[in-house]
Amino acid sequence: MSEVIDNPAQHRFELAIDGSEDAGEAYYRIEDNRVVLTHTIVPQTFSGQGIGSHLARGVFDATRASGRKAVLRCPFMGAFYARHHEYSDIVVG
């Protein structure tokens, strides 16, 4: 699977899926130097294949590497975090 890429011009993290044009996307905005995660999209055809979890892990890892904190306004990211407290050092609010 591809790596998660930050696309700041589009305010989203992207994950290319198996070389196709489809991508998982996690939208965000920056507020007070925090990454506010607002919405996550994984194409329905890839549902249940772990794409969303791979995307979320990449988003949290990239946020940690940037030195920023994450604010979870997206229900999917909130549910992922509820199962992965290893990211508690970067999740606020």
Automatic annotation (TrEMBL):
InterPro entries: Acyl_CoA_acyltransferase, Gcn5-rel_NAT, GNAT_YJDJ
Protein name: Acetyltransferase
Pfam families, per the entry: Acetyltransf_CG (PF14542)
Lineage: superkingdom: Bacteria
Organism whose genome encodes this protein: Skermanella stibiiresistens SB22
All copies of domain N-acetyltransferase, residue ranges: 5-92
An MF annotation (GO) of this entry: transferase activity
UniProt keyword annotations, A-Z: Transferase
